[in-house]
Amino acid sequence: MLILTDPSEMQRSAMGLRRNGLKLALVPTMGCLHEGHLSLVREAARRADRVIVSLFVNPAQFGPGEDFARYPRPFEHDAALCRGAGVHILFAPAPEDMYAPDASVFVDEGRISRGLCGSSRPGHFKGVLTVVTKLFNLCRPDLAVFGRKDAQQARLIRQMARDLNFPVEIVVAPTVREGDGLAMSSRNRYLSGPDRKKATCLHSALQAARAAFEAGERGGAALKAIIGRRIAETPGAAVEYVEIVDAESFEPAAVVRRPALAALAVRLGATRLIDNIELTPEPQAEGAPPPPEDRAGTL
Ligand code: PAF
Q1: Does 28 sit in the ligand 1 pocket, CB within 6 Å?
Q2: Is residue 37 among the annotated active site residues?
Q3: Model pTM?
Q4: Ligand 1 atom nearest to CA at 28
């Protein structure tokens, strides 16, 4: 595995691989890798000849007072996991090599990014879309793989690739969960023992909404209330948002008639966790493919 830190060298290597006719897949990460990331790497390896993992804690997507400084950076551990997973290039640039002090061009979006994490973390998606654009230009991938846990991010990146004509296929892979349902996240390691136990409330609240949905509930407000009540039963869990949104527009869904997402952000102490599930109105016929959240594809 090659470890590259210089953006120009990364770009030269990617262009060399492409000239040799190799199909490249990129898995963008902020490091502190876990099984969720490794599942993205495996998906990338299934679809391409070479896998590039970028490891960059992107300052531009953190707001003031957020966890940029304390975000875990276990580089050797991450590199060992990538090596073990058959990654070809690990690209780990320094912030000063990614952003010139006088950088003045950014990528932003004004519709899908308005709600959910976009409203609770102003500027976050501008930072994400800008760095992903830069990573696409540096790593020149044919495809890039993102996790469904960050559903709004994945939807925005797909929109960006379409609107700005990036020749990059956006693949969205299923959320990987711990045995008790907690979605894997690098931020789970912030949780104290008791908070780790409480963190299962995100998944159980979403499951309660799914059960109601499967029993015929289609009202956005009613589904939100079910989730909110479950979280409220967990002492110390503070809801940042609970929303039922259209899976395509990310507009709130008053009534779920088309594929939708139940999404939430919850704080446990200083730790902010997000999760979501898809709510798909059509009944699944016997022998039909599994619901989209259980397989990789577009969001
Ligand atoms: O999902 C993440 O880890 C980050 O938002 C990403 C896509 C690597 C951009 O910094």
Answers
A1: yes
A2: yes
A3: 0.94
A4: 8
User: What is the arithmetic mean of pLDDT over 153-164?
Assistant: 98
247 lines ligand 1 (CB under 6 A): no
The residue whose CA has the least distance to atom 8 of ligand 1 is 29
139-150: average pLDDT? 98
List, for residues 96-116, the tens digit of each pLDDT value.
999 999 999 999 999 999 999
Domain 2-173 and domain 186-279 have a common topology: no
CA of 288 to the centre of ligand 1 (A): 32
- To the question of domain 2-173 being in CATH 3.20.20.70, the answer is no
According to the model, what pLDDT value does residue 183 have?
A: 98
Indicate if ligand 1 lies below 6 Å from the C-beta of 31.
no
Q: Is the pLDDT of residue 192 over 80?
A: yes
Query: Ligand 1 atom 3: the closest Cα is on which residue?
Result: 29
pLDDT band at 296 (very low <50, low <70, confident <90, very high): confident
Ranges of each domain in the chain: 2-173, 186-279
Q: Judge if the beta carbon of residue 154 lies within 6 A of ligand 1.
A: no
Strand order in the sheet with 237-246: 237-246, 260-268, 271-279
- Rounded mean pLDDT, 178-202: 98
φ, ψ of residue 68 in degrees (nearest 5): -55, -50
CATH superfamily assigned to domain 186-279: Pantoate-beta-alanine ligase, C-terminal domain (3.30.1300.10)
